[in-house]
């Protein structure tokens, strides 16, 4: 009896994770496109950022609202969903893998597949389960993340398409949380996570677009082999762009992370409940 129950729980976690990921991706795609445009721009992205005096070149995007108007004017509404198909292909398996692996790890640690037993796990075990689940999800969905970044970083005209394709207790107990409380928990979790991890996301985006051809009006491109490794990339960004360089796109990223995580949490819970009632 235990094996069919675990199989059912795994199916629910996988399906609910994929659906919730797809929903949040469709809603937050415009903010993600703006964030990526900032992250891959070597020039300053704000007037207050301090950069070395020998920096040359003009900035294509200098603020969130300015970037929004520029994309809308030059690319239309469709520009805000550029790369959305590979993004969906990334986030749906990402969430599916993440929620499934996390559920399996918690089941192993608690010795039970019941949600109430998972809640009793120590914060340390929950942290380890979440971290391993996130690593597994990243590995499984990375090719789509790479394609999404390349497409989302492009403006008009699409230079890459022409040249590259042919060649390459505050809230009570966890089991009593309302939808609004889940939304708040997701909002705070997403915001905190982005603030801590954003510099690594910037470095990842730079590696993903190394050597990518773009129209000159979008500024200096990241040349082939510009960074030897992660540490060298961090040092280069700090030297040429200052600390602000590691936090390029932090505003749209934070604005996006809060509702994205919250939507995922709520959509996952609602989808899980619906699937459990349907499969019962």
Automatic annotation (TrEMBL):
Repeat positions for Solcar: 8-108, 177-274
Protein name stated in the entry: Mitochondrial carrier protein
Organism annotation: Carya illinoinensis (Pecan)
A Pfam family recorded for this sequence: Mito_carr
UniProtKB keywords: Membrane, Repeat, Transmembrane, Transport
Source organism, top-level taxon: Eukaryota
GO cellular component, one term: membrane
Record's keyword annotation contains Transport: yes
Family membership noted in the UniProt record: Belongs to the mitochondrial carrier (TC 2.A.29) family.
